[in-house]
Amino acid sequence: MSASAFVIEPPAQAAAKVIGGGLFPVRRIFCIGKNYADHVKEMGGDPKKDKPVFFTKPADAIVESGQSFPYAQGTENLHYEGELVVALKGGGKNIATPEAAAALIFGYAAGCDMTRRDLQAAAKGAGGPWDTAKAFDNSAPLGLIVPAKDFPDSKIASSRLKLSVNGEVRQDAALSSMIWSIPEIIVTLSKLFELKAGDLIFTGTPEGVGALAPGDRVEVSIGSLPPLEFSIEPKR
Q1: How far apart (Å, rounded) are the C-alpha atoms in residues 114 and 137?
Q2: Residue 115's Cα: distance from chain center in Å?
Q3: By C-alpha distance, which of 193, 202, 89 is closest to 149?
Q4: Which residues share a beta bridge with 36?
Q5: Strands 168-174 and 160-165
Q6: Structural domain containing residue 71
Q7: Environment class of residue 27 by beta-carbon count within 10 Å: exposed (0-12), middle (13-18) or buried (19+)?
Q8: Alpha-carbon distance 224 to 106, whole Å?
Q9: What does the pLDDT look like over 15-73, one tens digit per residue?
Q10: Is residue 4 part of a domain?
Q11: 31 with 77: CB under 8 angstroms?
């Protein structure tokens, strides 16, 4: 389809930077909640009963590392959730095995699932969806993507996720403590959606989530991945 066929100017392709140069075209952003038992407990749940859940964010919610952005509108309780993010180079439906799922991975990055916690609590209380709590502007800060060959399974198994606010560590957990492994997440998602190249998957956050305020500086580090850094500006 030619560009001239559009009746308005089409939006720019959302993209994420890859270490060493180049851009990863972002198609969709999937996220998983309740994937660390201790986080389920701190949110008042029971990891033996509460299964991981999926939700999405818009592709243009990405914020590059080193940037700052305003405190989110519509909330008085903006929270951080540090996460490992998976970038896919392929996809499919009903992916059969963890091995087939792993073959679809392009790389990994440090990310942060920004959350309007007061809106999430209201949605949970009403039995409603989480869209307004999770899928808003600047809600997906993302570090540089590292190819999977440079962050193999052995590094994933031995790495810790750490998030600090103004230099104080708030989250610190082993990636190995995920309830669902990365291949299991991909296999399960593929039974609900047709995954495609360009999809990102935020794989869940450990315990220690908390509120941010204007002026706060956040850093998410995961093993040898480039750290994600961003700061919060006053609300506009």
Answers
A1: 10
A2: 11
A3: 89
A4: 178
A5: antiparallel
A6: 13-233
A7: middle
A8: 16
A9: 999 999 999 999 999 999 989 887 878 777 777 766 788 999 999 999 999 999 999 99
A10: no
A11: no
* Cα 201 from Cα 219, distance rounded (Å): 19
Q: With contact defined as beta carbons under 8 Å apart, do 118 and 136 qualify?
A: no
CATH number (domain holding residue 219): 3.90.850.10
Going by C-beta distance under 8 Å and a sequence separation of 6 or more, which residues neighbour residue 177?
Answer: 36, 37, 38, 206
230 close to 65: Cβ distance less than 8 angstroms: yes
Distance between CA atoms of 71 and 88, rounded to whole angstroms? 30
Q: How many residues does the chain have?
A: 236
Compute the distance between CA of residue 14 and CA of residue 85 in angstroms, rounded to an integer.
Answer: 16
pLDDT of residue 66: 98
Tens of pLDDT, residue by residue over 93-126, are 999 999 999 999 999 999 999 999 999 999 999 9
Question: Is residue 2 in some structural domain?
Answer: no
Express the helix, strand and coil content of the chain in percent, nearest 5 each: 20, 35, 40
- Please indicate, yes or no, if residue 99 is contained in any of the structural domains: yes
**CA distance to 71, 73, 179, 204, per residue, from 35 (Å):** 26, 27, 5, 5
| Residues 78, 63: Cα–Cα separation, whole Å | 16
Helix ranges (H only) for the chain are: 37-42, 98-102, 117-126, 131-134, 153-158, 182-190
Q: Is residue 198 part of a domain?
A: yes
Report the number of distinct structural domains present in the chain.
1
